[in-house]
Q: What sequence folds into this?
């Protein structure tokens, strides 16, 4: 294609509201154009990338046996009421009434609609397993849309849904999708990690996030460099850092720590390691009667080592807490501990409190904790001797770099990632049972579908790819999803017949080989021309100049290369083709 | 592809709410599935057709130099307020408020958004002309959605918009799109007609509808079989059927016509041709002051020949009526004519009335019209002698079959059509001027863009194609947009190794040639298998049977053919390939 046949519109400066590099570069490269908060026009350069992303997704989904269909953007609320999501979904769900005052939603996902299709179309076990997918516009009314396509309101998602007769088959479907996702992200040419993720209220053990690695990512990814362990921070298991509890060596001693309400301050004051302190976090759970009134409140004290952080997802899975918890109020804390927050600890409680110790804390000796008296801590505390064993010992903290890997194969590292895909085993509870979506088994008995759901944020891929691949000059697209793979940049296209002939020939030969090549016929000066293609991020460039042609050569340069390769004109096509990833 | 890899779900009976054949067949063939009123899931067989339609549209749009982008489904209302469409658009515009109570619309078209893009991106005359397009989900909240995809609420449309510096250039862009549309509909393989259409309030003379010809179409298309004249019924010009007014031959005579209030009844009673009668239609126009109060009402009498029908679009273009008119009330009629409707005429008016005669009526002599007296008509009426010449003579009627063609090249015929595309010259008044969308001309002076808009109803194409191409067994897709081009139907695929080998080979060889072929490996009985593919409308079928293979042959049958062609197995691929439209 010639550049004049498409629409190129680059900017020197990014608009002020663009906070992160991918947003800035997409705006500057003319890939997106803001229409409203979190709502973007996809301009020709951006749409070309989207189409390549979608094509790869479709090929791999089809190869994996998933069947494409298309479900509507505007969906009747009735279906969403069947699963309770119409009521339960927060203001992120865009609700709309039609001219007859009937309720509709602008779909953020399509579980209800696909389950409605399945309950009508998949009547027999003979029709299972079955995975459907679509690539469709979604809308989530984010409270604070930002970061361009990374947290937009309208976006394109590929969502797939599997229907199986039993859990074993569902996990096979899950695995097929997992492998398809790996194939997709491999083909994108992005560095990514599939990490185990929490399954939340669904339970079960099959949930993986596909994270594109980028320092700017919002998510923390835990992995073991010497094994294949990988999980997100919510899920990654923290082992005890102390193999066995040592015998007490110190006497318990109340110590004044005036104004020192954090473990860091206390450790500094006392001149002890932070790892000798214990942090107290107070939660509460409420028991309600049928009328919804609170009939009983239980207060919980969760203890993690001073250098560790509470993991609320893990806490939320503990017996007694998994029905939902909240942080205790100051009044509740003072009532149970006789002290304001900042000096709390497990010793000298005024009312019964459930004490949960992190695995590491449970093995600590001679530790320091709050004295439940303002401006005082207690040192030399020991389980058993100074206070009863904790009610519960559990993994309730985030892992940190250097923790032992749960698979015993090394120590953990942490990197940042951007979640662009998610595969999830749903089971029967969330959609098929409430919607009465069943098939008939061999005995003619109705059984609820075992379901899975699988999403890829198509438009988000663009942002993640750029966060991972850019430099000070602009975007560096992987070959497979670049808006163009090769840019032919002739110097003097409109005034030098030799340059024009060579550039045209290179373009035509590459195009004939199926290479997505653009010929810059806009007549820009070399500097501006090169800057445009570097900003847009085309991975391969061929410069055709009169000077080069005098020696029968052109210059080929990869977007990451600092210098050009001088290549004979006659070999340029083969040279470039050899560099392209299949 | 193997049939087991996609999803085929056919029905014996269409649901009761499917009124027209395309809706019935799309439901029965499992192409669409109703989700709500006018909202459909596109099932795999239907989506395959949509993708082929979209691909052809994209190729031809790109070839014509249009550049694809993608504008959002959810659009901020502010832009729609700039053109006044937010206020003026009726309840068909789906309006929605976000979590911050801001107004949005679910787009029915994208003129405002593209004009917003143009006013930011197209700053100089050097960037013109420019045509953008997108293929995107649209929503129109039809009062009475019906006919499946023909009058749905959510649908896919390709909409293109051209921006030019002046009208001459805009008409060139229009012509380019017109020719691209012809190429698109040619490639679809549908019988269609591009017909001149009314430009409504925009004025100007460039508006064409692309109508797929079908007896069941809602639109009347006027054309001249011996020339290239074609227009829709709203626009088609009606010449006078009487070259010159003859001298009066009869005396005027009031005639009792008790209870005969229609021209047909009067002609029958008096034993005269219907073409000797004149029909009276009474309109009214209101003049308002600045406060919006009616200060003056004018009553109009429009006269068409008894066998003709008033064309309201034409009437709406007359001086004095083009500001908007309404039908007069019975009170206004009695006040001005001294008579109730049914016996009205241009003679003996009680108050001033503007009389408009159709061109044919103006040349009639000795005609019959109402006497403005209940149960009486007047015969032998003549202009000039019995009443003043009309205030205005104009084309205010629909043409009828046999009328002279306006181009003087023959007589007019009428056929039915389904509008699936529309090209429209917009000028500057509707969008670029109200939105302040300007470019700088050679003198650095801002000028409003001359615009055009161009739509194709992607999903509607499916309905129109089926209305035009079906039989009692199902759909008959043209090759180019069929869900599959060829179905290989083996009899005993799962139990006869020779049949399986031959079928696999045919499938693989055709697929290798780029033919979109499906191999039915579902193990259905021949009757059910053939019925499915006939219902789905695959245009070419190859039956592989043990009996045929015994003589080294297979049976190839086109969907419209009544008998199969026995073809040697070795020649079958070439035979089929030779039948396919490029």
A:
């Amino acid at each position: 294609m010639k550049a004049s046949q498409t629409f190129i519109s680059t900017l020197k400066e990014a608009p002020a509201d663009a906070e992160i590099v991918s947003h800035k570069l997409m705006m500057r490269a003319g890939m997106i154009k803001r229409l409203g908060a979190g709502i973007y026009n996809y301009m020709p350069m951006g749409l070309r990338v989207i189409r390549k992303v979608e094509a790869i997704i479709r090929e791999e989904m089809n190869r994996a046996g998933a069947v494409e269909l298309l479900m509507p953007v505007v969906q009747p609320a009735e279906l969403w009421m069947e699963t309770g999501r119409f009521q339960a979904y927060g203001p992120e769900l865009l609700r709309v009434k039609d001219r007859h005052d009937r309720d509709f939603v602008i779909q953020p996902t399509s579980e209800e609609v696909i389950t409605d299709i399945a309950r009508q179309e998949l009547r027999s076990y003979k029709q299972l397993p079955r995975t459907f997918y679509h690539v469709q516009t979604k809308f989530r009314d984010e409270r604070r849309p930002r970061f361009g396509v990374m947290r937009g309101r309208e976006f394109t998602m590929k969502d797939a849904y599997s229907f199986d007769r039993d859990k074993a088959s569902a996990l096979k479907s899950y695995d097929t999708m997992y492998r398809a996702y790996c194939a997709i992200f491999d083909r994108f040419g992005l560095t990514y990690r599939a990490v185990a993720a929490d399954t939340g209220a669904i339970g079960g053990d099959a949930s993986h996030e596909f994270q594109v690695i980028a320092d700017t990512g919002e998510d923390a990814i835990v992995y073991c460099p010497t094994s294949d362990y990988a999980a997100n921070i919510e899920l990654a298991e923290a082992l005890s850092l102390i193999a066995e509890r040592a015998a007490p060596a110190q006497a318990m001693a109340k110590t004044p720590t005036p104004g020192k309400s954090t473990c860091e301050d206390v450790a500094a004051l006392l001149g002890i390691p932070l790892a000798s302190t214990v942090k107290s976090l107070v939660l509460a759970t409420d028991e309600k009667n049928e009328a919804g009134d609170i009939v009983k409140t239980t207060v919980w004290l969760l203890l993690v080592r001073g250098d560790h952080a509470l993991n609320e997802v893990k806490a939320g899975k503990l017996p007694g807490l998994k029905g939902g918890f909240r942080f205790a109020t100051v009044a509740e804390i003072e009532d149970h501990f006789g002290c304001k927050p900042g000096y709390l600890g497990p010793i000298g409680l005024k009312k019964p409190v459930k004490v949960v110790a992190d695995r590491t804390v449970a093995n600590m000796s001679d530790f320091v904790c709050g004295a439940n008296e303002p401006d005082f801590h207690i040192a030399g505390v020991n389980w058993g001797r100074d206070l009863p064993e904790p009610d519960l010992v559990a993994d309730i903290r985030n892992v940190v770099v250097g923790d032992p890997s749960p698979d015993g194969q090394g120590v953990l590292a942490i990197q940042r990632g951007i979640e662009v895909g998610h595969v999830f085993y749903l089971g029967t509870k969330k959609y098929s049972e409430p919607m009465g979506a069943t098939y008939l088994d061999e005995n003619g008995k109705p059984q609820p579908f075992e379901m899975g759901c699988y999403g890829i944020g198509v438009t988000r891929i663009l942002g993640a790819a750029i966060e991972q691949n850019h430099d000070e000059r602009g975007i560096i697209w992987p070959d497979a999803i670049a808006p163009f793979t090769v840019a032919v940049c002739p110097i003097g296209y409109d005034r030098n017949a030799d340059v024009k002939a060579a550039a045209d020939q290179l373009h035509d030969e590459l195009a004939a080989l199926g290479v997505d090549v653009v010929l810059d016929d806009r007549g820009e000066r070399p500097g501006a021309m090169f800057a445009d293609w570097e900003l847009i991020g085309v991975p391969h460039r061929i410069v055709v100049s009169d000077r080069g042609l005098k020696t029968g050569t052109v210059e080929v340069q990869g977007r990451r290369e600092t210098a050009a390769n001088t290549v004979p004109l006659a070999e340029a096509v083969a040279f470039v083709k050899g560099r392209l990833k299949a």
